[in-house]
Amino acid sequence: MSDFLKCQKFDSRHLVDLSYPTYFRCSRFMLEHMFETTSITVFGEFNQDDLVYCSITSTILVIYYSFARRFITSNKGRAWLITTLVGVFTSLASLNVLSKCILQGFTLKVFDATDGMSNAALHVFRSYCVVDLFVGVLDYRDQLSLLTTWIHHVVYAWLMTSVLNNSVGNAMVIFFLEEVPTVILGLGYIEPSWRSDFGFGGTFLILRLFFHVVLLSHFLVWRHHHVLGWYWPCVAFSLILHMHWFYSWYIGMQKRGWKKTLSSTDLTKLSLPIFLKSCNNF
């Protein structure tokens, strides 16, 4: 603790005088002190119960994929099998929180809480992040991208752990409603005859833009909350990504011609921009 007290006396002008060992000790103590003065578990903890839940859900997902992959020949379609299934489950789980918001309003009482359904959805999504990387490396490595797979899955696995440890599962699970466009997009890759560009674009506009803005407005109000206040930058950053993706989708549709697209009876021949192939995870 003495090192930390010394660190508090340092001015930024004296930072150059610090040796590397002293600097890192000061940084460590300052971080520990900052997190000790808050009620949030920023980095999360992986306990024995988490290991059990992760093992069970991961096993189920691997068994499902091993069975379902037999019916899909393309790597692109296989890459969406687990994502689509998890998207269906998490979207349905979000209805539990949405119903509370409808009955009680979008209040802090609803968001600063959790229940069994929310925790289950968080455990499933965290296991999905692990399994999708593991299975992907083995079976569809060419479909894994740096940003939307490796970085995304690692960050979201941490985020799920943090939310679980802080018992604010409802605040995260309500965003799983935005996985509806994911399901529509995933089904189109699994079976081309199920593809619907307008179904994807419409749900994306409503859920990942309009609905997301509503949620962001509440998180900004709660930005000084001792727990939820830590998560609003994630909500804001994801909105920026959603806006970029939707604009790119719009430009792609415009280039193909709206009238031609609307008059076509076979929407399965339409193609989304390349980057939208993996945008489901945001």
Describe the model.
This protein has 13 helices and no strands. It is mainly α. The protein is globular. The two termini are 41 Å apart. The N terminus and C terminus are likely disordered.
- The overall average pLDDT, rounded, is 81
Q: Roughly what fraction of the amino acids lie in strands?
A: under 5%
Largest sheet: none
Give the N-to-C terminal Cα separation.
41 Å
Helix content: 55-70%
Q: What order do the SSEs take from the amino end to the carboxyl end, as H and E?
A: HHHHHHHHHHHHH
Radius of gyration: 22 Å
Low-confidence parts = 1-39, 263-282
Number of strands: 0
C-alpha geometry: globular
Q: How many helices does DSSP assign?
A: 13
What structural category arises from helix and sheet content?
mainly alpha
Task: Reconstruct the topology from this structure.
Blueprint: H1 2-8, H2 20-36, H3 48-68, H4 75-79, H5 81-104, H6 108-111, H7 116-139, H8 146-165, H9 169-173, H10 180-190, H11 197-221, H12 232-256, H13 258-263
Helix pairs in contact: 1-2, 3-7, 5-7, 5-10, 7-8, 10-11, 11-12
